[in-house]
Design a protein that fits this description.
The protein has 65 residues and is α+β, with helices and mostly antiparallel strands. Helix content is 26%, strand content 25%.
Length: 65
């Protein structure tokens, strides 16, 4: 697990799609940051590749509808 004291900043290009949320581990002893999708509420690990894939999923779904 990553060090919870490290701040994972949300890149400005994702500000309109995600928000940075803090979560606890199951035992409640540690906390860490996740990116939460503003449209569906799914939480992903902080990385741009995962965010790009998640945004692409929403774009595909919107195009298919």
């Amino acid at each position: 697990m990553e060090d919870p004291r490290v701040v994972h900043r949300l890149p400005s290009r994702y500000w309109n799609r995600f928000r940075l949320v803090r979560a606890n581990t199951e035992d409640g002893l540690l906390w860490f940051y996740l990116w939460e999708c503003r449209s569906c509420g799914q939480r992903i690990k902080p990385n741009t590749a995962g965010a790009q894939a998640h945004v692409a999923k929403h774009v595909r779904e919107k195009g298919a509808a």
